[in-house]
C-alpha cells in the first residue's frame, strides 16, 4: 500500500466538540447521509412487519403494543431527529450526546427501565473498504433502538432470522435481540482479525523478496497502527459484555446469561488473537532489520571479493608498468606469460580463500 | 525543532522546597504575576455578578449569602494572599501548601465540609505555546475556589454559560461547577493529544525524505519525553475522577454522578489514546533505524557497483601498460580496439549481473 | 524448515461460521473422517467391556446402568450424530456448538447435572507431525463423553489402566476419569515444550555456523508464532483447572481435589516454561542480529586489509610508471630493487598495524 | 565518568552473613566509625536539651520522663552497643539484626508498644559523593531511636526545627517525629532524581557531539544500573508509607494521618518520575545506536564519493598508459587536453549525481 | 565459557514420567547414589544423638518418643525406601510422587497432621560446580523428613547449631526447624545471585576488550537462560513462604511467624535483585550491539582514510603515465618534483580534512 493512499483513507476525525456545553448534542463524525433513514421492525411470535421511513415520528405508532419494536436509525448527523426519539423514550441527555459522539469508546450504562450500550461495528463494505462505524443500542421493555453512523451494517443475517418465523429470536425478549445484535458485530470481528492475519503473512512474504520495491518499515508501522486501533475499538467491549453477563438488571432474562457467556468467550478469543498478532507485527520489524542487514552483508561481500581479487592483480601489473632502467624481469623472453601465470595463481588463491569462508 | 530551542523552552523547575518545614507555603513554579488577579463570580438562579480585583479581601463580602461564589486566583507566587483566603475558609495547612506547590501531582482530598482537587491544565495559549499549569480547586457548600499559576485558562466557555441564564449550571450546586471545571480541562486534553498525533505523523513523513537535515533520533526522544510528561500529568486524574464518582461526600449530589461517569469515560479514552501514541512513538525509533540502514545499503550499492565495474577494467588497462619486451597483443594491429571490445563486454556483464541482483 | 513446507502444513482455518444463527452446529475444522468412529468403554469395579461402532445409537444401550460409560467420538464433521448424542444426554444447544467449533478456546461450564470442559490436545502423531486437536469432555453422574476431531489421541495409557483391574480408576467416579483425561493431555504438553526447547537449541547452534544457508529470521519468527500458538492453546486451561479445583459441583468428589491440585501444579509449571522459552526465542533474534553484524565486521576487515595494503603499493608503482623526462630514481642502477625494498617495508608496516589492532 | 572510577566507587557489599544463626547480629556494611557516636535530643513543649556522647548508657538517663527522647546512633559496626540499647527498650532480636543488616530492604514492622521502620537515606554528602545509607527508626511511647551507618545525614533542618520553640514538632508526639524523619529522607530523594535527570540530559548532549571520546554504551548501562538501584531503594518505601497511613497502631495519632497522606503523594510522585527516567534511559541506547549508524553512513558516503569519482578517472588514465602500437588518440595533437576535458565532464557528472542524491 | 562445555554441563532432564499412572513413584532426575544414605538426628533440650545408616528402617526406632527426629534421606532414586518411609508416616501417595519428581516446582501442601514443602536447593559444591537440587521437607508433630537428590547440602551450619546446646533451635518445635532449613536454603540464594552479579560484571568488562575472542552473544544468551532458570527455581518459593507465614496450621507456632516474616523479606529482596540482574543482562545485548557497531565504524574509517588518500594520488600518477605524444608537463625539467609537491599538498589536505572530522 502506498503512503499517499493510506493518508487519504485515513483522514482522522478531530475532537471538534471541545469547549461545548456538556450534554450538547453535536455530531463529530465524517459520514453524512442526506435524510435520516429509519427502519422499523415490529415483531411478536406470530407476525413481523417492517417499514422504512425518513421520519422517526412513524416509529412511535408501533410503540405501546405488546410486540417488540426495533427502530434502526442510519445517519447520526440528524441530531434533531435523534433528540426527538430520545425525548419520546425519555432517554438521559448524556445518552443522546454519546449516541452522536463517534469518539465515544464502547461502554454500557444501566438506567432505570433501559440499558444503553455503545460499541464499534468493524466490517468491510461492498467495496471491500474497512469501515469503523459507531453503533449505539438502547433496549427497553418492548423496544430496541439502534443508531448507526451510515447505511450498511452487519445485521442482514439477523433481519432474515427475525422474518423467519421459527427462530428463537421471535420467542425471546429485547435482551435476546441485544445479544443477537452484539453477536453479529463480534462475529464480524473474526473476519477483521482474519484480514489482519493475511496482511501479516503478506508482509512476511514481501520480506523474502530480493529487492522489495519500497521501504517496508512504513507498511509495518501502518499495520501496528491498525492493530492498535482495532484493539482500542474491541478491548472495551470485553468489559461491556462482562458487565452485561454479570448484570442483574430486570431486562436481562436468566436464560440469556448462557448466551452472553458464550459471547464473552468469543470476545476473549478475539482479544487473545489480537495480542498474538500484535506480537507478530512487532517481530516483523526485527525481521525487516535482519533482512536489510543480510542484504548489506551480501553487497559488502561482492565488493570485498571484487576488490580483493583485482587490487593485488592491478598492483602486479603496475609493477611492470614502471619505467626503471633496469627491471630484469622485463627482459625475460616469456616474462609476460610468467606474470600471467602468477596472476592466475593469485586469482585462484583468492577464490579458494573466499570459498573456504563460504562467501562464494 | 532544533535542540537549542527545545532546551530553552523546557527549563525544568527544580524541587527547591526540599528541607523545608512540612506545611510551609513556598511557591516553586516559574510563572510570576505582579499582582494577584482575583476574579469573583457570584451567581444564583436569578442573577450573576462578576468583579475583578487585586485583593482577595473583596471576595469575602460575597460569602455567607445563599448564592454560589466562584473565586478564581491567578498567580500562585502571592502566597500571603492565598494563606489569607485559606484562613477565611478554614482550609487545612497542607492544602495551602499543595495549592502553591506546582510539583504536586493530581489528587483529591475529602475534608469535613469541603473537597480539594489538584489537576494539571494543559493547553496552547494565544501564542500557540504549550502551557502546563497547576490548577487547584476547593469546593464548599456555597463557594468554589480555583487557584491558577498564571493568567489565561480554558474556562471562557464556562464563564459564558454561567452568564447565560438558561443553562443547567445556574440551577445546580457547587458540585456541578466542579464537574464543569474539570470537564473544561479534560476537553482540552483532547486537543493536546491531537497535537501529539500530528507531531507523530509529521515525524513519520520526515522519515520518508531522502536526506533529513538533522538527526531525527533527538526529535523522537523529545516526543517520547513529551508523551511521558503528558501521561504523568493526566494519568493520576483518572484516579481522582474515579474517586469523585464513587464518593459519598455530602457535597456531591446524586444527579452529578452520571456526569462524572461521563467524565470518567473521557479520561479513560484519553489514556488509551496516549498509550497508542506511546507505542507509535516507540515504533518510530525502529522505523528510523531501518531508514538509516536502508540508506546505508544504497550507499554501499553505489560503491560496490562503481568499484566492481571499474576495478577489473583498470586491471585490463594495467596489463597493457606493462613494459615487457614481448607482449604479443601489443603488436596486433587492432589490439587496442579488441581490448575495448573486451572491456565493453565485461562492462555489460557487470551491468547484467547487478540488474539480475536488482541493485540497478 | 523451509518456508514452502511451513505454509503447506500451516493452512489456517478461517472463521467460516460468521453470520450464522447462534447455537447452530457447524464444523469449521479441516480434519474429516468418513464415518464417525464411536468407542464405548463401560466399566465398574468388577468388569470392563469395550465396543467400537459407527453409530452413536449403540452407546445408549449402556446408559442407565450403575456402571460408568465412556463414549469417545472421533470426527467432529458428523454434526448430526453429535446432535443425536446431545439430545439423548439433554446437553444445552450451545455446548453442541462448542463441541464442533474447533476455534473454541479451552473453557469449563458447569450445568445442572453435568460439567463441560473444552481443551486442546497437542501431540506428535505416528508420523511425528504436530497435531493440535480440539477435545471436548462432558461428564455426568455415570457417563463421560469425549469428542475428538480425528482418530489418534493420547489416551492409550489411560485405556490400559482402565482394563487393568487393580487401578484406582476402576474404583472412582466420573470425576476421576475427567481428571485422568486432562492429566493425559497435560502430560503430553511436557513433550511438546520439550520439543520447543530442542528447536531453540537447534536454532542457537545454527547461529554458530559460519554461513547459515538461509535467512534464519523467518525460522525465528516461525518459532515465535509456534510458541504463541501453544501458549494460546494452553494458558486458558490454567483457569479451567483452577475453577475445577475450586468447584463445589456435586460431581466433583472431595478426594479428587488433591489430584486436581497436582494437575494445577503441572499446568503452572508448563506455563512458566513457555514464558522462559518465549523470552529465549525473543533473545534469539537479538543473537541473530549480532551474528550478522559480526559477519559484516569480518567482511569489512578483509576488504580494509586488502585495500589498505595494496592501494599504497599500487600508488608507489604508479609513480615510477610516469613518463616525466627527468625522474632521477629511474636512472639508479638498483632503483627497481630499492623500490621493492620500500614496498616490502610498507607491506609489513601495514601487517604490523593490523596485527596491533587485532584484526589479523 | 571513566570505567575505572566507577568500579572503585561501586565496591559491592557481599552477603557475608550467609550461614549464620538467624537473629545473630553482624554488621555487613562497609562504613566503619571508630566510636559509636550517640546523639541524644530530649524535648517537650517547654525545653530542649541535646547531648552528644560515645556511650549509649548516657541515653537511658533521659528515659522514663514525660519528654520525648530522640536517640540517634551513628555507626552500625558497634553491634554490642546497639544490642545494649535493644535490651533496654526490649526490642525483638530480629529487629536488632535488621538494624545492622545494611542489605535489609525498606520495611515496617508493628510490635506491641513500638513501631520499627527501615529505609534508605540517599543523599550527596559535602564532597558531593552519592551516599546510600541504611537507616532504621524505632518509635515508642516517649522515645525515638534512629540508627545510621555513618556520620552525616539529612536531618539538620529537622534538628533546627526542634530547637526552634514554636514549631508543630514540639507540640506533637513521637509519631509526628517519625513522619518528620521520613519526610526529610523523602525530600532528599527529589534531589537525587533531579541529579538523575541532569545526567540523562548530559548524556543526550554527549550523543550530539561529532566524535564522543569513549564508548557511551557503558555510561548508559551505568545509568541504567543506577536508576535500578535507586528504584530498589525507594520502591518498597511506598508500601511502608502506605501501611503507616492505614495503620491503626495506638502510637499513630489521628491528626498525623493527613501528613502521612501527603508523604504518600510525594513518594508516588518520585516513583512516577523514576519510571519516566527509566524509559528515557532505555531510549538513550536506541538514540546511541542511531547516532553510530548515522556516523557510519557518513563515513561510507565519503568513501563512496571518493572512490566513485576517482576510480573511473584512473581507469581513463590507465587506458592511455597502454603500450599498444596503434592507439589513434595518442597521436592527436590535443589528445591529452581532450582527455582532460572528458575527465572534467565525468568529474562534474559524478558531483551532480551525488548532489542530486543529497550526499553532498 | 566455551559452548561445548556449557552443553555438557547443561544436560537437560527430559520429562520421562509422561503417560504414567498418576501417583506412580518414578525418579526422573539424573543424580544416582548407590545406597540411600539416611541420616537421623534426634534431639531435645537436653541431648542430641546422630546416626548415619543405609536403611530407613533404623529411623523408626526414634519415632514415638517426645524428642524431635530429623530424618534426612540422600538419593531419590531409591524410590522403594522412600515409599517405605511414606507408609510409616502415612503420607499421601501424591506427596511421595512429588518427592522423587525433580521437575516439581516449589510448593506447599497442608495436610491433616503434617505440612509438605518442596523447594530447590541452589549452591556451589566443593568443586565449585552449580548444583540445582530438588529438596522436599515434611514436618509432623515430632518429626522432620528431608529428601535430597544427592549427597552434599547447605545444612552444615544448621547441624552444628543443633549440636550446640544453647541455641534457640533445641528449645523450639519442628516448625522452627522447618524455618531454619528454608532459611539455610535462602541464605545460599544470596551467594548464587552474587555469582550472577559477578558474571554480569565480567561480561561487561569483556565488552571493553578491543577484540573479544569469541562471539559474546552466546554468553549473554547463556546468562539470560541461567537467570531465567534461577528465577523459575526461586520465584514460587515466595508464594510458599507467604502461605507459610499466613498459615494457621496447628504445627506453626505463633512465635515462629516473625521469623517467617523475616524470611519473606529475604526472598522478596532476592526476587528484586534477580529482576535487576535480568534487566542488566537484557541491556548487555544492546551494549554488545553498539560495541560491534563501534568497531565496524572504526574499520570503515581506516578503509575510507586509506582509500581517500591514495586513490586521488594514484590517479595523479596515472595521468603522467599516459603515452600521449604531447603532454606539456612531461617536458618540464622539474615536472616530476612539481607533481610530488602537488601530491604532498593533496595528502595533507586529506589529512586535515579527516582531522577536522575527528576521524584521526
UniProtKB/TrEMBL annotation, chains A, B, C, D, E:
It is a multi-pass membrane protein. This is Magnesium transport protein CorA. The keyword Transmembrane applies. It comes from Mesonia phycicola. NCBIfam families: corA. The chain crosses the membrane at residues 302-322, 334-354. Gene3D superfamilies: CorA soluble domain-like, Magnesium transport protein CorA, transmembrane region. It is found in: Cell membrane; Membrane. Keywords: Cell membrane, Ion transport, Magnesium, Membrane, Transmembrane, Transmembrane helix, Transport. GO terms for molecular function: cobalt ion binding; cobalt ion transmembrane transporter activity; magnesium ion binding; magnesium ion transmembrane transporter activity.
Amino acid at each position: 500500500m502506498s503512503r499517499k493512499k493510506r493518508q487519504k483513507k485515513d483522514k482522522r476525525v478531530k475532537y471538534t466538540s471541545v469547549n461545548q456545553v456538556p450534554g450538547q448534542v453535536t455530531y463529530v463524525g465524517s459520514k453524512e447521509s442526506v435524510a435520516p433513514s429509519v427502519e422499523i421492525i415490529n415483531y411478536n411470535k406470530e407476525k413481523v412487519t417492517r417499514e422504512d421511513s425518513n421520519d422517526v415520528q412513524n416509529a412511535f405508532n408501533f410503540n405501546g403494543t405488546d410486540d417488540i419494536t426495533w427502530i434502526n436509525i442510519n445517519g447520526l448527523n440528524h441530531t434533531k431527529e435523534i433528540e426527538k426519539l430520545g425525548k419520546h423514550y425519555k432517554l438521559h441527555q448524556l445518552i443522546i450526546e454519546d449516541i452522536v459522539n463517534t469518539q465515544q469508546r464502547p461502554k454500557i450504562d444501566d438506567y432505570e427501565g433501559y440499558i444503553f450500550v455503545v460499541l464499534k461495528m468493524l466490517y468491510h463494505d461492498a467495496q471491500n473498504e474497512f469501515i469503523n462505524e459507531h453503533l449505539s443500542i438502547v433496549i427497553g421493555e418492548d423496544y430496541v433502538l439502534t443508531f448507526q453512523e451510515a447505511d450498511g451494517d452487519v445485521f442482514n443475517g439477523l433481519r432474515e432470522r427475525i422474518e423467519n418465523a421459527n427462530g428463537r429470536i421471535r420467542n425471546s425478549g429485547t435482551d435476546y435481540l441485544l445479544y443477537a445484535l452484539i453477536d453479529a458485530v463480534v462475529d464480524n470481528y473474526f473476519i477483521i482479525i482474519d484480514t489482519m492475519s493475511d496482511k501479516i503473512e503478506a508482509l512476511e512474504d514481501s520480506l523474502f523478496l530480493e529487492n522489495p520495491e519500497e521501504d517496508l518499515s512504513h507498511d509495518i508501522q501502518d499495520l501496528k497502527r491498525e492493530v492498535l486501533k482495532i484493539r482500542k475499538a474491541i478491548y472495551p467491549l470485553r468489559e461491556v459484555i462482562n458487565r452485561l453477563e454479570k448484570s442483574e438488571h430486570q431486562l436481562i432474562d436468566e436464560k440469556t446469561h448462557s448466551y452472553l457467556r458464550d459471547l464473552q468467550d468469543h470476545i476473549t478469543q478475539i482479544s487473545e488473537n489480537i495480542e498474538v498478532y500484535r506480537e507478530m507485527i512487532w517481530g516483523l520489524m526485527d525481521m525487516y532489520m535482519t533482512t536489510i542487514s543480510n542484504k548489506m552483508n551480501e553487497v559488502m561481500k561482492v565488493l570485498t571479493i571484487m576488490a580483493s581479487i583485482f587490487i593485488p592483480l592491478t598492483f602486479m601489473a603496475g609493477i611492470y608498468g614502471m619505467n626503471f632502467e633496469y627491471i630484469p624481469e622485463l627482459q625475460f623472453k616469456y616474462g609476460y606469460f610468467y606474470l600471467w601465470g602468477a596472476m592466475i595463481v593469485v586469482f585462484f588463491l583468492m577464490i579458494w580463500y573466499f570459498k573456504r569462508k563460504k562467501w562464494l
